[in-house]
Specification:
The protein is an alpha+beta fold and 493 residues long. It is built from 11 helices and 7 strands.
Length: 493
């Protein structure tokens, strides 16, 4: 069964908000109702005890009044006093009935029954016998015990109040513990749900960010797969469509570079050979000005040939950089050989060369490593001022090889360091050469470094100038070897 998947990020946010907030709201409402119930229970108990206390006090006052009237009636024998007694007696009965209707304890209810019973017998004696009868005197003396029993009801009522307070305190403690347990269960649950929905919401956004960054870095090999709400998945499909379009454009660009490079190389070869013939005087002797023009023509054709070779190298690096002809290479001799090729440029700019080369052997593609080092030297020479310095360092560090080329030029601004390895990017620094470069040298160097499982970076130096460092593994990874073997099998077939 497929899990529920919202159609939009808005609906996912709404579902997450409801699932996180709803349990907390239910818990809050439950806590509010429980507290209100406890408060209401306390209020009812308080009101009941207050009414019971008031009625008991009225009962005591009624008994005191009846006792006073009864004693006066016994002494004076006035029938009017007996009528006043009957009024207090009626007040006593009403108060006793109100007390009986309240929520009394068993002891209070039993004591109230005894008081009513005793009062009935006293009342019957006063009504039945004359004031001077012994029965009337005995009945009047019974009011003392009746008043004591009524006062005992006040004491019982105070004990009832204390019991209600203790019961409310126990209920409050139980409610507090229940709310604490509820909070301990709901708060972590809400946090877990919030974290879960945060992951569900941010995961497709992170996937989109990675896909966009790969497109920005020129990596079109992996499709843009977005897993999440349907609207974000559709946006991922649009990104993948854009990736395929960019890949097609990249392929068209590479084909164009391949064709235009070959188309330019054929006439350029003819021009260069013609310039060589003129310069060597094979077609006739030249005067000094003509020889100078022929030399300029030859030098510029060589520079154009170098630019075209860079275009071809870039096309190869973009399409088959992972296919290496791995062999054992003595890297110091390879660097010295490349430096020999640049002796004329070094002398022309009067550059001082500082070398720190350790004997290092590694596995790699000789042609691609030579092109990598050559492009680093060409870039450093191009941006070095006349009579400047050029430092080259080679050393092994564990299972890695470090090649550093440092010039004394204007350096690379921080804002350009991320882009100088992009194809055709030349930066804002002006080149000192007569022919502006294509901006492919460092891009090719990066492709060949990555093809060997390494990388190239710009590092900070204490002195002025740019320092480019190439880090390569001494032994290629299994993936690099596998690509090399697959390439060799393809060549055999």
């Amino acid at each position: 069964m497929r899990l529920y998947r919202p159609k939009s990020i808005r609906r996912l946010l709404l579902v997450g908000f409801v699932l996180v907030v709803l349990p907390l709201m239910v818990a809050l409402i439950h806590a509010t109702l429980s507290v209100d119930q406890l408060v209401a229970q306390g209020q009812r108990a308080l009101f009941a005890t207050v009414r019971a206390t008031q009625n008991v006090q009225v009962l005591v006052e009624s008994i005191t009044g009846m006792e006073r009237n009864a004693r006066q009636y016994k002494v004076l024998g006035d029938i009017a006093l007996l009528e006043v007694y009957q009024e207090n007696h009626q007040k006593f009965l009403e108060t006793a009935n109100r007390l009986a209707a309240l929520n009394l304890s068993d002891l209070q209810r039993e004591r109230l029954g005894m008081i009513r019973q005793v009062e009935d017998s006293i009342n019957d004696a006063l009504i039945t016998f004359p004031p001077d009868a012994p029965e009337t005197a005995t009945a009047v003396d019974g009011f003392g015990g009746l008043a004591r029993d009524a006062r005992k009801m006040l004491v019982d009522n105070r004990k009832l109040v204390e019991g209600e307070v203790e019961r409310l305190d126990a209920n409050g403690g139980r409610l507090q513990r229940r709310l604490v347990v509820q909070a301990m269960a709901l708060v972590p649950g809400a946090l877990i749900l919030a974290a879960l929905f945060t992951v569900l919401i941010t995961r497709p956004i992170r996937q989109m960010d990675r896909a966009i960054r790969r497109l920005g870095d020129g990596d079109f090999s992996r499709p843009a797969q977005i897993v999440g709400p349907r609207d974000l998945e559709q946006l991922g499909e649009r990104l993948d469509w854009m990736r395929t379009r960019l890949l097609e454009v990249e392929q068209e660009k590479n084909r164009f570079l391949h064709h235009i490079s070959h188309e330019l190389k054929t006439p350029l070869t003819a021009i260069r050979e013609g310039a060589e013939l003129l310069n060597e005087g094979i077609v006739g002797s030249l005067n000094s000005q003509q020889r100078e023009i022929a030399a300029i023509l030859r030098d510029n054709t060589l520079q154009l040939q170098k630019l075209i070779e860079n275009l071809l190298d870039f096309n190869v690096a973009s399409s088959r950089a992972s296919q290496l002809r791995v062999e054992r290479i003595e890297l110091r001799s390879l660097i010295e050989s490349v430096l020999d090729d640049h002796k004329v440029a070094l002398l022309a700019r009067q550059l001082q060369l500082e070398l720190s080369l350790q004997p290092v052997e590694m596995q790699g593609d000789r042609a691609k490593l030579r092109t990598l080092v050559d492009n680093l030297f060409s870039n450093a020479i191009k941006f070095s001022p006349e009579q400047g310095s050029l430092r080259v360092r080679l050393e092994a560090q564990g299972e890695q090889v470090l090649v550093e080329v440092t010039d004394s030029g204007p350096g690379i601004p921080e804002s350009e360091r991320r882009r100088i390895f992009d194809a055709f990017y030349q930066g804002e620094s002006a080149s000192g050469g007569q022919v502006r470069g294509t901006g492919l040298g460092l891009s090719i160097a990066r492709e060949y470094a990555q093809a060997h499982g390494g990388y190239i970076e710009v590092i900070d130096t204490e002195e002025q100038g740019a320092c480019l460092r190439v880090v390569l593994p001494v032994e290629p990874s299994g993936e690099v070897r596998g690509n090399h073997q697959a390439d060799s099998v393809a060549q055999v077939q």
